[in-house]
Write a structure and sequence with these properties.
InterPro entries: DUF6691. It comes from Kaistia nematophila. Pfam families: DUF6691 (PF20398). By secondary structure, the chain is mostly helical. It has one domain. 67% of the residues lie in helices and 0% in strands. The chain is built from 7 helices and no strands. The radius of gyration is 18 Å and the shape is globular.
Length: 156
C-alpha cells in the first residue's frame, strides 16, 4: 500500500465531494426536505434536484468501479475493499429505518453535515455530536455482543 497516494486520493475525493455538495445546494437541509416532501408535487413545491445529484453519483460510481475492477489491485491499496455481507438482515433494516427518520427530520445526512462544519453553525455541531454519540453507542453495543464483528466490519 502507498500511504501518501492513498491520502492524496482521499483528499481529492473529499474535496470533490464537498464541492459537489456545496455547489448543488445539498448542504442546505431545507433543499433536502423539499425533495423528501412528495406531497408538494401537487402544488409544484417539490424539488427533484436531489434525485439528479443521486443519479449522477450512482452513474459515476458505476463507471469508476467497472474501470477499477479491470485491474488486479487498486493503485493505492493492497486489495479492493468489498463488503462481505450480501444479505439483508435485521441490523441493516433497523439502521436504514433510523437513518431515514433522522434524515427526514433534519434534512441532513453525514456527508452534508460534515461539509457544513465550514459554517460552524451551532445546530450542525449539535447534529454532528449526536451522530457521533449514536455511532459510538452502536460500536459499544456490538463490541459487547461479539468483539470479532468489529474486526470483520472494519476492513480498510
Amino acid at each position: 500500500m502507498r500511504p501518501a497516494l492513498f491520502r492524496l486520493g482521499a483528499l481529492a475525493s473529499g474535496l470533490l465531494f464537498g464541492l459537489g455538495l456545496a455547489i448543488s445546494g445539498m448542504i442546505d437541509p431545507s433543499k433536502v426536505k423539499a425533495f423528501l416532501d412528495i406531497a408538494a408535487i401537487r402544488t409544484g413545491g417539490w424539488d427533484p434536484s436531489l434525485a439528479f445529484v443521486m443519479a449522477s453519483a450512482v452513474l459515476v460510481s458505476m463507471a469508476a468501479l467497472r474501470i477499477a475492477h479491470r485491474h488486479r489491485h487498486p493503485i493505492a491499496a493492497a486489495t479492493f475493499a468489498t463488503p462481505s455481507a450480501r444479505r439483508v438482515d435485521a441490523p441493516l433494516v433497523l439502521g436504514s429505518i433510523l437513518f431515514g427518520i433522522g434524515w427526514g427530520l433534519s434534512g441532513l445526512c453525514p456527508g452534508p453535515a460534515i461539509a457544513n462544519i465550514a459554517f460552524a453553525l451551532p445546530d450542525i455541531l449539535i447534529f454532528l455530536a449526536a451522530m457521533a454519540v449514536g455511532s459510538l453507542a452502536v460500536r459499544l453495543i456490538r463490541g459487547r455482543r461479539n468483539p470479532d464483528d468489529e474486526k470483520t466490519q472494519a476492513q480498510p
